[in-house]
Amino acid sequence: MKKHGFDTKALHGGQSDFQPDSMSVPIYQSVAYPYSDAKEAAAIFRAEKPGYTYGRWSNPTVEVFENRMAVLENTEAAIATSSGMAAIFMLAHHLLDQGDELTASNRVYGGTFALFDAGFKRMGAKVNWVTTPESLDAWSEAITPKTKFLFVESPSNPGLFIADIPALAALAKENNVPLIADNTICTPALQSPVDLGADIVVHSTTKYICGNASSMGGIICGSKELIDALRLGPMRYLGPSQAPFNAWLNLIGIEHLSLRMARHCENAISLANFLESHPLVESVNYPGLESNPYFDLGRKQMKGCSSLLSFVINGTSDDAVTVIDSLELLVHATHLGTCKTIVTHPASTTHSAMGPEEMAKAGIPPTLIRVSVGLEDPADIIGDIEQALERIT
User: Fold this and answer.
1) Which GO BP terms sit in this record (predicted)?
2) DSSP character at residue 89
3) Which of 101, 115, 220, 367 is deepest in the core (most CB within 10 A)?
4) Distance between CA atoms of 166 and 319, rounded to whole angstroms?
5) Alpha-carbon gap, residue 185 to 203, rounded angstroms
């Protein structure tokens, strides 16, 4: 469906032929699928014939979601997982053996940091962190003969670092390794990492793809060769499959993804402009601001800067907590990418496991507040944060 526009593909991409046909993708809430005979069963298990075997490996509803995400991310195929972390784990598990290494930006989600820094260490693999990911030389120096892939989250959570994806992709190709891009924050509505040169795209579909905090999920988008290997290998013996109902909820979210992302961007820049002029705010991290160091790069790579922003207050960690506790309308939760605005204190929640030293390296001070700007009236979002800031004056 490459000849069609994004919104058309979001509504029709990857659709299978269901009987009877339906306006909404049917939910196949089943763990097994009867075969016509033993010969057919063997052929499907060997991937010699299309078909479904067991719910942990494949499902018709999940398949539509996978196909639609592949169409939107401009990849050959995709495989859905139970969460974003499950997607990253399964992919890295597939690409790494004992003694192997990976090179990654340290500007990543706290769970990703813990998986790479602690989880893979226990399994005999090593991460080489790039603590100045703006520097291509720093990336090059962190690559060794044992490096199996480069990993970047762009924009990053919560500091909103933006990577030069084409430059990283060229570096990856020079070293004959794939570049994996986490596109959770922008979604394919605002950014296409593959078109910029990345080889593999991962998402926590729990966030913007679903859009209303009702469904956990993750996805890996890449070549047919990679996805087939994942489905026939680690998906079968690890089992991080996405539930059919969750895939159905994600499909509903995709149908209006670009409309939501446009409103997210509008509301976020309104809030960012307000915060940048507030006397109690030391700095604002949002690539849509002309004062932001990633402003020009963001305009080249993205159609919009999404809804995630963070700001540092002039005060203490306790003051940051006071602001959050003083909110009357906005939600305090450890989540992002929903229709409702969510405010979080990363240093004590989502990124706390990194520890003070690593958080400092990643640009996450204890006075930083993260905001996932929702779809409420922008005046109401700004008004609630304004009255909360007044509590620390």
Assistant:
1) methionine biosynthetic process; transsulfuration
2) H
3) 220
4) 40
5) 8
Q: Could you report how far apart the first and last alpha carbons of the chain are, in Å? A: 55
| Ramachandran region, residue 134 (left: φ > 0; alpha: ψ -120 to 50; beta: rest) | alpha
Q: From the CB of residue 1, how many other CB atoms can be counted at a distance below 10 Å? A: 14
Specify the range with the lowest mean pLDDT, choosing from 28-32, 268-272, 382-386. Answer: 28-32
Q: For the residues of 148-165, what is the DSSP string, one character each?
A: EEEEEESS-TTT-----H
d(CA 218, CA 130): 25
Distance CA 111, CA 352 (A): 10
Domain residue limits, the chain: 6-255, 258-392
Tokens for 385? 């944060």
Residues in the chain: 393
Q: Among residues 163, 95, 165, 98, which one has the least CA distance to residue 126?
A: 98
Torsion of CA 111, 73, 167, 170, to 10 degrees: 110
Containing 172, the helix (H) or strand (E) segment is: helix 165-174
Q: Give per-residue pLDDT as tens, 294-315.
A: 999 999 999 999 999 999 999 9
Do the domains 258-392 and 6-255 match in fold? no
Beta strands across the sheet bearing 342-344: 281-285, 308-313, 368-372, 342-344, 331-332
**Is domain 258-392 classified as CATH 3.90.1150.10?**
yes
Burial status of residue 134 (CB atoms within 10 A of its CB: 0-12, 13-18, 19 or more): middle
- The CA distance from 109 to 89, in Å, is 13
Specify which residues 343 forms β-bridges with.
332, 371
315-373 residue pLDDT tens: 999 999 999 999 999 999 999 999 999 999 998 887 887 888 888 888 889 999 999 99
| Separation in Å, CA 74 to CA 59, 78, 130, 148 | 22, 10, 28, 23
Pick the CATH number of 6-255 from 1.20.140.160, 3.40.50.2000, 3.40.640.10, 3.90.226.10: 3.40.640.10
Whole-structure pTM value: 0.94
CA neighbor of 184 nearest in space, from 212, 146, 210, 147: 210
